[in-house]
Amino acid sequence: xxxxxxxxxxxxxxxxxxxxxxxxxxxxxxxxxxxxxxxxxxxx
Length: 44
Prior knowledge:
The structure is a single chain. By secondary structure, the chain is mostly helical. It has a domain at 15-44. It has one helix and no strands. The protein has one helix spanning 15-43. Residues 1-44 form the Cytochrome oxidase subunit II transmembrane region profile domain. This is Cytochrome c oxidase subunit 2.
């Protein structure tokens, strides 16, 4: 059961799945940074 402190994907069962999870995490970080930047620009 997932809790707030452990809310992420399962470990990858293959090297390809590990790379997909790595790509997903980094893409999410970049999207969050862009969203924060756009919000900052809109509010100023």
